[in-house]
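ok, trying the design again with the full structure, not the truncated one.
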């Protein structure tokens, strides 16, 4: 059946993506790389074998992200109608760059620090950094941003930041924009890809919302009406009413009682654990769902939907490992 591109069947793409994922660093391979992390030279060689420039340990995370962007860019040509869905994943890096630019505008990053941290290169919209750094007004700053996926939606976010100077709020607005774009792209994917893409995109959006709520219980202690306004749209199990109920939870016990069974089953044994353990358990649900979809031989189009989530999972795991190795953390 041809549902992803005029010239490639889902069955062809299923085989192509599985061949690509067979070279991924996950499971036993990730464990093996973790064991090498204590030996700087061995770890560098292992990363270079993956095609990741590793001579400068501080640059490895950015190089890992560039590896993912290049991979999705190559595959985007093959997946045809699902290309916009793949674009949403690489578009996220533009929003992360924008968060850094706002930190510079807030005086928290120098121009040199900003240039070092920005992720630029093939597959990403080029930034006119000199013009962006000189822009005095919000409208000039917005006009200097590259046009594309997010252009129209960004101006109100930038204007709100200019008024309130609230980086937390701006970051969350940009995250919500990403999830809104991701869900819309999933809903517009070809028929064979769409169901799995829509499920996974909404699951990620929902887990993001739950992490915001968990952090509010543990750290932020913001009013429910403020938190609700920061949550991602388009979840699977969390209706607007359920999100408001969760946002009003004052402690973990009340939050747990309000959770749908799918999440409560995962979270209940972790009541005495710290926040990072709660968040990791939730994100594992996404990883597991993506793996199940990827290996669904009865619906080959689901591999097209699941692959970018798996690459994202692999990249984040490698970034955490490289940062731990650089800082000498086991």
């Amino acid at each position: 059946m041809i549902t992803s591109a005029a010239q490639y069947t889902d069955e062809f793409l299923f085989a192509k993506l599985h061949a690509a994922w067979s070279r991924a660093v996950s499971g036993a391979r990730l464990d093996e790389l973790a064991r090498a992390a204590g030996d700087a030279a061995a770890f560098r060689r292992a990363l270079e074998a993956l095609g990741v420039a590793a001579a400068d340990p501080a640059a490895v995370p950015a190089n890992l992200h560039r590896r993912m962007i290049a991979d999705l860019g190559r595959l985007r040509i093959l997946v045809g109608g699902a290309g916009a869905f793949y674009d949403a994943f690489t578009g996220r890096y533009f929003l992360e760059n924008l968060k850094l630019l706002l930190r510079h505008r807030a005086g928290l990053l120098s121009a040199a620090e900003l240039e070092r941290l920005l992720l630029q290169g093939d597959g990403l919209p080029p930034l006119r950094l000199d013009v962006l750094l000189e822009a005095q007004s919000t409208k000039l700053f917005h006009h200097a941003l590259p046009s594309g996926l997010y252009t129209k939606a960004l101006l109100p976010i930038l204007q709100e930041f200019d008024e309130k100077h609230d980086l937390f709020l701006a970051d969350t607005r940009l995250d919500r924009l990403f999830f809104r774009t991701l869900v819309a792209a999933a809903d517009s994917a070809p028929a064979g890809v769409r169901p799995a893409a829509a499920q996974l995109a909404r699951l990620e959006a929902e887990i993001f919302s739950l992490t915001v709520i968990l952090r509010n219980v543990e750290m932020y202690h913001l009013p429910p009406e403020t938190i609700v306004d920061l949550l991602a749209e388009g979840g699977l199990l969390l209706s607007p009413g359920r999100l408001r109920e969760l946002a009003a939870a004052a402690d973990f016990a009340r939050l747990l009682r309000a959770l749908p069974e799918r999440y409560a089953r995962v979270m209940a044994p972790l009541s005495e654990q710290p926040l990072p353990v709660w968040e990791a358990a939730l994100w594992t649900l996404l990883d597991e769902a993506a793996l199940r979809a990827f290996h669904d031989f009865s619906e080959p189009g689901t591999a097209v939907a699941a692959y970018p989530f798996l690459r994202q999972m692999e990249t984040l795991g490698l970034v955490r490992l490289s940062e731990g190795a650089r800082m000498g953390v086991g």
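Keeping the full-length input from now on. Residues 10-323 form one domain.
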